[in-house]
Amino acid sequence: LITHLFVIINISILTAGIIYAIQQQQLGTISLFSMFLWWILGAVVGSTLVIPVHELLHGLVYYLLGAKKVTYGGNLRDFYFYAAADRFVVTEKTIWPLALTPFLVIGGLCIWGLQSEWSIELKCLCWGLLSLHSLNCLGDFGILSYFWSRRTKKLYTYDLVKEAKSYIYQEQDTQNIPE
Questions:
Q1: Which class for 23: exposed (0-12), middle (13-18), buried (19 or more C-beta within 10 A)?
Q2: Residue 110 three-state SS
Q3: Contact, 46 vs 131, CB < 8 A?
Q4: Which parts of 1-67 fold into alpha helices (H)?
Q5: Sign of the alpha-carbon torsion through 54, 98, 144, 168
Q6: Which residues pair with 74 in a beta bridge?
Q7: CA angle 49, 50, 54 (to 5 degrees)
Q8: Distance, CA of 76 to CA of 68 (rounded, Å)
Q9: Which of 3, 94, 119, 126 is deepest in the core (most CB within 10 A)?
Q10: 151-175 tens-digit pLDDT
Q11: Using an 8 Å Cβ cutoff, are 83 and 62 in contact?
Q12: Residue 71 gets which letter from DSSP?
């Protein structure tokens, strides 16, 4: 369900962006070249420059949930980035705000920009940023999909920063263990 939701959200954003582009073309408010250029600029920002903000938002949620220290890192070769709270246990209830906050905050700011009185160029930049940032939230939606598909189980996750690993555990049902 979560994976399907992710796909629907991203297709909807792309479709709305295309409809917006067609409308602006018909109104003659911006050239196709300029629109494409600003959309690409937004896509680049949405795929690179917004990464620290995205990870800081994860870190903020970790702190709000009670984590004492958050570590940030990434791998440029494989192009992934993370915020990790060493040995801080995250439950199936707290994984939701942790995973969704950057998507909602950055996406919300982009949508606000689209509704603002900004220039058409900045709105095209917002479309590009919204499109690529939403797509790049794949990992966040992936962990939610994993937890959702096992929602009848009691799952926990935590990071071991020194090992550069994350672990997911399922609570054992001790009531049904034979004596």
A1: exposed
A2: helix
A3: yes
A4: 2-27, 32-44, 51-65
A5: positive
A6: 81
A7: 145
A8: 27
A9: 126
A10: 888 999 999 999 989 999 988 765 6
A11: yes
A12: E
